[in-house]
Structure formats: C-alpha cells, structure tokens
Design brief:
With about 280 residues, the protein is α/β, with parallel strands linked by helices. A hairpin with a 2-residue loop joins strand 3 and strand 4. It starts with a strand and ends with a helix.
C-alpha cells in the first residue's frame, strides 16, 4: 500500500498516509508494462494471481479502468457516504481517482509518482486524490486474471485487487476525519495508521454491494506481495494485518449500524492514539 501525507502533519506519520488537495483526473492509453516485481512485504498466498489455476484473457487498460477500477470507486464512495452519515460525521469522501499515463509524473508532497510505477493505487494526500499508474493497469490487464468484460475469473483476485484500492480509501477517510476534528497526530505512529487503513479496507469488503465470494485474509492480502509497496517498512506484520482486516470484516452486511461501530473499532483497536486524537 502506498500513501504520502501533506506537509505539516506529524513527522512520524508523514511517510505513510497519502498526498492531499483536489485535482482533475488525467487520462492516457498506457502500453503494457513489464511484469510487476514481487516484494517481501505481506504474506505469500495460495491466491497469488501468478499461481492461480484459473486463466482469463488479456484486456487493455481501458477495460481495467472502466470495468474494474471505476465500478470499485463508485461502490467505495457510496459506502463511505452512507456510513459517515449514519455516524453523524460531517466528513466527506473527497478523493477523486486519477490515472497517470506512462509519460506523466505527479509531485505528491515531495514524492514523485509516475505512470510507469508498478505499485498499486496510491492515496496522495497532498493532492487529495487516489492515483493509479498506467503501468499498473497494463500489468493487471495483461495478467489474464480477467474475462473480456472485466470480471475476474478467480474471486480471490477480485478481493485482492479491491483491497489495494480500499486500503487507499481508508487513508482518505482517516484524513477526512482528522481534518473534521482538527486532530493532533503528534503521537500517532505510521504503523497504527497503516493498520487502521487495513481494517477500514476490511470494513469496505464486508459492506459494499459487490459480493466477494472469497474473503479470507490471505486472499485479501494476496496482491500486496505481487505489486509491492512503496513504503513497505511501515506496514504491520502479516499477522497484524490479517488481524486488522478480520476486525473490519466482522459486521453483517444487512445491519448497517454495525459498520458505524466497526469504524470506531477499527480506529480504537488498530490506532488507539489516533482514536484518542479524534476524540
């Protein structure tokens, strides 16, 4: 997962959270990139798409954007608008999703994001947007985990890719709550914020309309070692990440009040100093 904080927040958190502000999406038609390199960050999984028995077809990046990432974005936005309203929060979901063509770069609070990055989506708090590289989309399209219509052949790949995006949405929600409360993050560690974002991603997997046929934590984290992490050293251990996701997965889809409680539990159990700062 990759996130970068705006300047002025606590130094201990700066390396992780994201990059903030509002900007328009950029578009581009990416060419297929080289296969993503593996990373030691995160657990290995039988759901690793490189070893999956199910094989789909190669699709272009346009299919990945319109049939995979955009629908995930809409469901994520709708989910948080609902849950934040139920929680009585005035925080909003502000981050658009922008796509960097291979020739494009973005200065995210001093961290250069590039359209040639193999990493998954990155929340840039400095621009307040979730940035997706052309190379990531091309790699996913070329990996043959999708059918021609953009649906996943293996449900483990579906939840694994969604987690990459949901984790970044978790960072956006944390940033919005911090802004709403004008919270002081001086005592909040980067790892706590990362685990809270993992937990909020689990909450989204449990709560969005999309039906995930596979929700075990190994499948949820299955793409993390495949695409790698920009700031791998600040994430929790594999066991801690799985435990955080389990907390998020706990609510019953039909009982929406449980997701309000789940939001509080994600913060208090995974990032107690952050929960304290938010009041």
């Amino acid at each position: 997962m990759a996130t970068v904080l705006p300047r002025g927040l606590a130094l201990s958190v700066v390396a992780i959270v994201g990059l903030a502000g509002c900007s328009q999406s950029t578009t581009g038609t990416p060419a297929a990139g080289a296969p993503a390199t593996s990373s030691s960050a995160g657990p290995t999984s039988s759901s690793d798409p490189t070893t999956s028995a199910a094989v789909g077809v190669a699709v272009d990046a346009g299919v990945v954007e319109t049939s995979v990432l955009r629908p995930m974005q809409v469901e994520s936005d709708d989910f948080w608008e609902e849950i934040l309203a139920l929680a009585g929060s005035s925080a909003g979901v502000s981050a658009p999703m922008s796509f960097l063509a291979e020739s494009e770069t973005l200065d995210c609070g001093g961290v250069a994001l590039s359209g040639t990055d193999h990493f998954g989506p990155t929340y840039c708090a400095a621009q307040d947007e979730i940035v997706v590289s052309a190379t990531f989309m091309a790699d996913l399209g070329a990996s043959q985990v999708l059918q021609a219509d953009g649906t996943f052949v293996d449900p483990a790949d579906d939840v694994g890719v969604y987690f990459l995006l949901a984790h970044e949405w978790g960072h956006n929600i944390i940033g919005e709550l911090v802004a709403e409360k004008q919270a002081d993050l001086t005592l909040v560690t980067s790892q706590q914020v990362e685990l809270a974002a993992d937990c909020l991603a689990g909450l989204m997997i449990a709560g969005v309309p999309r039906v995930f046929a596979v929700k075990d934590t190994e499948a949820v984290l299955g793409y993390v070692p495949v695409v790698g992490e920009r700031f791998a050293g600040i994430s929790g251990s594999p066991a801690a990440r799985q435990a955080a996701i389990e907390v998020g997965l706990a609510p019953d889809y039909e009982d929406r009040a449980q997701f309000v409680t789940g939001l509080d539990q994600c913060l208090s159990s995974q990032a107690p100093q952050l929960a304290k700062a938010l009041g």
